[in-house]
Design goal:
heterotrimer; A: alpha/beta; 6-stranded mixed beta barrel; 26 helices; 24% helix; disordered C terminus; B: 300 residues; Formate dehydrogenase/DMSO reductase fold; globular
């Protein structure tokens, strides 16, 4: 298509953040003229955020790398020699080959905001290292893990609120913008109609919280208590979807109640491993038959062998009907008044059971029961990092899902709804490698997966971690996204072992992606006193821009921008479907690179071929994908008929989901706007955990192994298995030092506990919680140097509650010191009223390091803006003096939002700059950096002539 | 408002120029004109002052070479009207100067031209004042004091200049005018100060019923054109200092020096001009644009 | 010609819903990219990689905290661009005729080929809708994407200003305020559409929908049927919940 002004329009997929919107790129005179949302695209339906709209400035950023670089000065100096790709690939191949011959795990491959994890994870497996992950571990893994282990899905790419039918929507936490445009569209939809209430539970009244019908400025880290209080209120009033609990959750399942025994807390099952229940109609224990059984939810029952068993639901009662979650108590800790908690519970109950919202869609469940209509539960929830990035985040997220289950508000009209291929079994049937492969061998399993019990952990015979980041160890058993935030420290400390090569992609680990920047830099620059070698011996880094991390690499492989490459947003990776349809998409190059750079995915495949990795070379050792990533996307099969892309499969291009590779597949995608969408029948759109028709379709499409129903976990038996292991039961027991933690933090029923900082004796000295969020126009992006976006925010302030600040004699815009036990940073404070009184916050990643990003050395980003990371530590000392990662004990999620600080007015108000100011890195810039930028296009006619041609009935006033 | 030197020179120089010319024309009509060479000198100085002022105003433009276009929109634009009037007023100025210097036989026209000169000058000053007084967006300007003031200050400063050419005749009138101008300036400031805060931020936002608004995140973290052009922050101490300079140099010292009768009229004229520039600097610096309500002002 | 038309056939403008705007800046940036390559572009960026980055923007997103007695504080995001006023003072002050208000649709424009850059229009505008471009030496402002809304090659439903088509939350609407049956007129009537700064008597075409008033909550509580674990175990024991 062309516009009147002669632009050519090409479709592709945005990569300015992780949201993956479809875009139309207008090109004129060989340059990008305009980028807009693709109106047909399932993710964004034509809209585009500030990041996406600033793509032009990203694409033409002067901070772009132009050629491979080899370090010649000391690490961090930024002294590089420009080298050819041939040389770069030879160096990289040589390094990796040596590692693989010796011990593949001595390669740690960590990718940041990588959207090709299906490729990079596969490469790691073929290489033989399981030291692989992306950035999820320090982002929002608690949300993902809690969801996948509880309801087989979660928020964002796993599911979304039913924006069109929900009557009551609650959003928790700061930093909720993961699903940037769909969330905005959804909230806009809700706010455009009358009769739907939107509640924001968020310490900060900014962004989405600003337009909520009610804002609850909760104290950070206490969301679980608040949710628990709601649960308690609903339970006490019996405002519970009993039918839902009985049919689709494990509430009625009998749990063995035999304290001290090896099977205590496990489900009682019959010989065929089917769960048992207490059948009220016959007053005895029988096998549960969904739809037919009338099971008890409460009571003590005796199994055949005389063992006591109780319905799982009873444990819920015991947790929530005690005095822990009474509105009065919870009110004190959360700061939310008790009468508000009580009222919101009442409002929730009222909205949830609005039966007139039910749909006349008949459906059949997996147990053979036919349902005349699809019952609605129009209450929905959304949360992301705000509740996840705490050391109690996993439990808080689980509790939110429990609340949904109690209300029956899962995949019902008006409630949270899954996006295919979710729901998946809890957890998904994908095991990960427990240890790395031997020399020159590959892994049979991928590095990341879902442990289903202690036996699946990546630990050695002593129970110690086999992974560098200690993910899947007894310390962080469910670290399903890995723990990238621990990689630098552990590689430096040689704990649990040393590595030879660290390869990273798109992750600014020397700056805002690391807690405690000073340490991160030390880890990369420290040398072994004996050998004089760097403790992390070799660092390969790929990025498109000269970020703060580039100067620390030994070899820099310059990546393309997102407009210059192929990519797949694959169902094998992090899919982009909607509640109504499955979808995947591609990126196509819409413009040629003007410098000597290569897409990292091409480089990975090339490296694989040079190393002769299985799957990347044929029997003769020739590359299997000589055409690079696009070749791989078309022809690679993960399992027979299953490839990176689901659309237009089969030789004739008529198959979907599964089918042989199709040479014209990418062409078909391009013709269709670079995405594929598979719409589900109305009957397959609800109750998908037990929807027979849906599960059959899902199996046919390759999303599920078999059309088995997914039982939702109000009671998580797997967590109890860990608990039992910590008590010494079974063949896989944690080493002594990990036992107490596992015993404490692995509980079958979600519970709230205060994090270390909240009970710490220091909590009085450090009374404030310090939060960060990214502005919507920079969320999940690396656009700080973007010429347009930095005009919006080139400087950040520490927002302080006005009342609190006044009481401390801190004036608006005063310089203050923010101090934590780990560090201090000098910042400018700014008043805010809509802020929890015990909280301060700032925009993250506005502060940059001098020399980086091709910005002038006097830029506000360097002198006035700051990183809060300086006061956040990746390690914490526990009460008994042990050093532990500042992470959730279950999932290893980086606990950014547990940071406690004190804030004091600085004595020096005159210097007008932040502290610490790190020494500059060497400036790198290969492009024009004009003093005045005029990004425009040649005019085809004088203004007046053109203006008169626009519109009709042109007639000027005389 | 940002006090741009080009615009300060424009209004003060041309004001003095027209004022001087009015004095000359008035005395011609009154039959009390000084000698011919003084008339020539006076008109030349008027032309120079007005010309410098107009040229200076074009320095403010992004496209000075297109300045001729500014004469076209006299039906709606005070700036355009000012341009037209200033050009028209050059006719009597040049005529009187030329005819007086070399009698070209049009002596009969001198008086009609003097009448035209007075009307033209008064109208030009009026149009200049209306450029500012017509702007509702700047409450400190949008009032009658600006219109009166521009006329009076032109006459008073022009009167001081006129002394140079008139051998001190009518200097008492000039002193009187300076006192009137001084009083007017003080009244104007009192009036501006009194009316400050008429418009509220909540009005600008169209949300007067939502309580008190204060800025949270600015639109852009660094200053933009609007803030640079219209967000001038006048330091109160500086304001006081500049007010005294304006009153002292613009009115009090000239009046005193004239009263004492020191024979340094060019110096007195220069002092007066400096005073007028200080007055005009304040005219801009003190004027707050309502756009600031969207930025850093609760009220304007 | 800088006299205002007596009447315009249409009054094209924007309806901005403050009840929905989350302050994401999408409209501002999308505006920037369309218009820098558009009919009045480029829109300069001064020191884009320097110590004090700024530039010409047709649309800027402010935000405010409102405080009212006995009510919770609230944050309001506030996008602001040219309001295409009926009585546009920026047009009448223009000495050159560069500023104009189109009689057919009411769009206010600056002809960059004629503008002398005297900045008077920016002084006259109470809203800060006009900006000076130092490179071009002329004034710049929102064109309501005139080169987008009249481009027949663009599908009809996308022929709206860039800020409207891109707004993720759907907080911006485009239409003809002269037509009482238009989407914007009806919405403005239904949801209390407001003028900015009516005291300035500029008769802005663009309207703003105010944030919806937060309702007063009436305390209420679910009636507890059980209140302790013991209660629940007693009452719910052997209760058939399937009925």
């Amino acid at each position: 298509m062309t516009t009147k002004r002669n632009s050519i329009i090409k479709t592709t997929t945005c990569y300015m953040c992780a949201c993956r919107c479809g875009i139309n790129v207008h090109l004129k005179d060989g340059r990008v003229k305009y980028i807009e949302g693709n109106p047909d695209h399932p993710v964004n339906k034509g809209v585009l955020c500030a990041k996406g709209s600033a793509g032009i400035m990203q694409h033409y950023s002067p901070a772009r790398l132009t050629t491979p670089l080899k370090r010649v000065g000391p690490r961090g100096s930024g002294e590089f020699e420009e080298i050819s790709w041939d040389e770069a690939m030879e160096i990289a191949t040589g390094k990796l080959k040596a590692v693989r011959e010796k011990d593949p795990k001595r390669l740690a491959f960590f990718t940041g905001r990588d959207q090709s994890q299906a490729l990079t994870g596969w490469f790691s497996a073929k290489f033989g290292t399981h030291n692989y992950a992306a950035h999820g571990g320090f982002c929002s893994v608690n949300m993902a893990a809690a969801g996948l282990y509880t309801i087989g899905g979660s928020f964002w790419e796993f599911g979304e609120p039913d924006w069109h039918k929900t009557k009551y929507f609650m959003m928790f936490g700061v930093a909720e913008d993961h699903d940037s445009n769909p969330i905005k569209k959804g909230i806009g939809t809700i706010k455009s109609r009358k009769g739907t209430k939107y509640i924001s539970v968020n310490p900060v009244q900014s962004g989405y919280a600003a337009i909520a019908d009610e804002w609850l400025g909760i104290r950070p880290g206490t969301d679980g208590l608040f949710i628990g209080a709601l649960i308690a209120e609903l339970l006490k009033a019996e405002k519970i979807d009993w039918d839902f609990l009985i049919r689709y959750t494990n509430s009625p399942w009998l749990v063995i109640d035999r304290p001290g025994a090896a099977n205590n807390g496990l489900f009682a099952r019959d010989d065929a491993e089917n769960p048992l229940c207490y059948e009220l109609s016959v007053q005895k224990i029988t096998t549960l038959q969904v739809g037919k059984s009338k099971p008890a939810l409460v009571g003590d029952y005796l199994l055949d062998d005389g063992t006591k068993a109780v319905p799982a639901f009873q444990y819920i009662i015991q947790e929530f009907l005690g005095d822990k979650y009474t509105p009065e108590k919870v009110s004190k800790q959360t700061g939310i008044p008790a009468h508000d908690i009580e009222r919101i519970a009442a409002e929730l109950a009222e909205a949830a059971f609005l039966d007139e919202e039910s749909l006349n869609i008949p459906w059949t469940d997996s147990y053979g029961n036919k349902h005349k209509k699809t019952v609605a539960r129009p209450v929905s929830f959304h949360a992301m990092r705000g509740i996840a990035a705490h050391k109690n985040g996993f439990e808080t997220c689980r509790m939110l899902h429990l609340l949904q289950m109690l209300l029956g508000a899962i995949d019902r009209p008006g409630s949270f709804r899954y996006k295919p291929p979710f729901p998946r079994p809890t957890p998904p049937h994908k095991k990960m490698a427990k240890q790395s492969a031997g020399p020159n061998e590959s892994l049979s399993l991928e590095p990341l997966g879902f442990p289903a019990g202690p036996e699946d952990l990546a630990v050695d015979e002593k129970g110690e971690p086999t992974r560098l980041d200690k993910a899947f160890s007894w310390e962080y058993p469910l670290a399903i996204h890995g723990m990238m935030h621990m990689v630098l420290h552990n590689a430096w400390a040689g704990d649990p072992y040393k590595i030879d090569v660290l390869m990273m992609y798109m992750a600014n680990m020397a700056w805002n992606s690391s807690m405690n920047v000073g340490n991160a830099i030390k880890y990369m620059t420290d040398k072994d006193t004996e050998t004089g070698e760097y403790k992390i011996p070799y660092i390969i880094y790929s990025d498109a821009f000269y970020s703060e991390t580039v100067p620390y690499a030994d070899l820099v492989l310059p990546d393309t921008t997102y407009l210059e490459r192929w990519d797949a947003i694959s169902m094998l990776d992090r899919p982009i479907g909607t509640a109504e349809a499955a979808a995947d998409s591609i990126r196509q190059p819409v413009i040629e690179p003007d410098r000597d750079v290569r897409p990292f995915q091409d480089v990975v495949l090339d490296l694989g071929a040079r190393l002769g990795l299985p799957g990347m070379v044929d029997d003769n050792g020739e590359p299997l994908y000589p055409g690079g990533y696009s070749d791989y996307l078309t022809h690679h099969e993960r399992a027979p008929g299953v490839g990176p892309l689901s659309g237009w499969r089969g030789e004739d291009g008529l198959s979907q989901g599964k089918g042989a590779p199709n040479n014209d597949q990418l062409k078909k995608y391009i013709e269709n706007g670079c995405y594929w969408e598979f719409e589900l029948d109305e009957k397959e759109q609800y109750n998908r955990f037990a929807n027979k028709a849906y599960l059959e379709t899902a199996t046919k499409m390759g999303w599920m192994g078999a059309p088995e129903p997914i039982v939702l976990n109000v009671y998580n038996e797997m967590l109890q298995k860990f608990h039992l292991a910590a008590e010494g039961h079974g063949n896989h027991v944690p080493p002594e030092h990990a036992r107490e933690r596992i015993r404490k933090y692995f509980n079958p029923v979600p519970t709230w506990y205060p994090v270390q900082e909240q009970i710490d004796s220091n909590s009085k000295e450090y009374p404030l919680t310090a939060l960060t969020q990214r502005p919507a126009h920079m969320y999940h992006s690396w656009g700080g140097q973007n010429a347009w976006l930095r005009q919006l925010t080139a400087q950040n302030y520490l927002y302080v509650n006005s009342r609190w600040a006044k009481s401390r004699n801190i004036d608006d815009l005063d310089w203050v010191w923010v101090r934590s036990p780990h560090g201090e940073v000098k910042v400018q404070a700014k008043y805010m009223d809509g802020l929890n009184e015990g909280t301060v916050w700032t925009w993250n990643a506005i502060g940059k390091r001098r020399g980086a990003w091709a910005l002038d050395e006097n830029s506000p980003e360097f002198k006035k803006a700051f990183l809060l990371n300086h006061v956040i530590s990746e390690n914490l000392k526990t009460e008994n003096g042990e050093l532990r990662s500042n992470s959730d004990p279950v999932t290893g999620q980086g606990a950014w939002f547990d940071t406690r600080v004190k804030v004091e007015r600085a004595d020096d108000q005159k210097s007008d700059q932040t502290s610490p100011l790190l020494d500059p890195v060497k400036f790198y810039n290969k492009f024009d950096r004009p003093d005045v930028l005029n990004y425009g296009f040649k005019k085809e006619m004088p203004f007046e002539q053109e203006e008169r041609s626009l519109g009709t009935k042109r007639e000027r006033a005389k | 408002m940002h006090p741009a030197l080009s615009v300060i020179i424009f209004t003060t120089f041309s004001g003095m120029g027209y004022g001087l010319f009015i004095w000359l024309c008035g005395n011609i009509l009154n039959g009390t004109a000084p000698d011919n060479m003084s008339i020539v000198g006076g008109t030349i100085l008027s032309i120079l002052l007005v010309g410098t002022g107009l040229l200076s105003s074009t320095l403010h433009l992004g496209h000075p070479e297109r300045a001729w276009r500014a004469f076209s929109q006299w039906r709606s634009s005070w700036l355009s009207r000012e341009g037209v009037m200033s050009i028209l007023t050059f006719v009597p100025m040049v005529f009187i100067c030329g005819q007086t210097y070399i009698d070209m036989g049009f002596q009969k026209l001198i008086e009609p031209m003097a009448i035209a000169g007075i009307i033209g000058s008064v109208l030009t000053i009026f149009t200049t004042s209306m450029i500012y007084a017509s702007l509702k967006s700047i409450p400190a300007w949008h009032n009658i004091w600006v219109v009166i003031g521009y006329q009076i200050y032109a006459l008073s400063s022009g009167g001081v200049a006129y002394i140079m050419f008139s051998d001190w005749q009518q200097y008492l009138y000039v002193i009187l005018l300076l006192i009137v101008a001084l009083a007017l300036k003080i009244i104007t400031w009192i009036s501006i100060d009194k009316h400050r805060g008429k418009y509220k931020r909540e009005d600008a936002l169209g949300l007067p019923d939502f309580g008190k608004a204060k800025p949270f995140e600015p639109a852009h973290s660094q200053k933009n054109y609007l803030q640079r052009e219209m967000g001038y922050d006048l330091d109160p101490q500086r304001r006081t200092l500049m007010r005294w300079i304006a009153l002292g140099f613009g009115f009090i010292f000239p009046a005193l020096l004239l009263y004492i009768g020191l024979p340094i009229t060019p110096v007195i004229t220069l002092i007066c001009l400096i005073g007028m520039m200080a007055e005009r600097w304040l005219f801009f610096a003190e004027a707050e644009h309502v756009v600031r309500l969207y930025y850093d002002r609760e009220s304007v | 010609m800088t006299c205002l038309p007596d009447k315009t056939d249409k009054k094209l403008g924007l309806l901005i819903d403050l009840n929905i705007c989350v302050g994401c800046h999408a409209c501002a940036v999308n505006c920037k990219e369309w218009n820098t390559g558009g009919i009045t572009g480029p829109m300069e960026d001064i020191k884009p990689y320097g110590d004090d980055p700024s530039g010409v923007w047709y649309n800027r997103i402010h935000s405010y905290e409102f405080k009212k007695e006995k009510e919770a504080d609230r944050t309001v995001y506030f996008p602001k661009s040219c309001l295409h006023c009926d009585d546009a003072p920026c047009v009448t002050v223009c000495p050159t005729g560069a500023s104009l208000k189109r009689s057919e649709d009411g769009i206010v424009l600056v002809n960059p080929d004629v503008c002398i850059g005297c900045k008077l229009c920016s002084w006259a505008c109470p809203y800060g809708a006009r900006e000076y471009d130092t490179s071009a030496g002329v004034m710049q402002k929102c064109t309501l994407c005139i080169d987008k809304i009249y481009d027949e090659n663009i599908p009809q439903e996308r022929r709206v200003p860039a800020c409207v088509s891109t707004c993720p939350a759907g907080a911006r609407h485009f239409g003809d305020f002269a037509d009482p049956e238009s989407n914007v007129s009806k919405r403005a009537a239904e949801f209390d559409g407001r003028e900015l700064f009516p005291q300035m008597e500029t008769k802005p075409v663009n309207k703003y929908l105010p944030p919806r008033k937060r309702e007063k909550h009436e305390d209420r509580r679910l009636t507890p049927k059980v209140s302790t674990v013991k209660d629940a175990l007693l009452k719910w024991a052997k209760l058939d919940f399937t009925g």
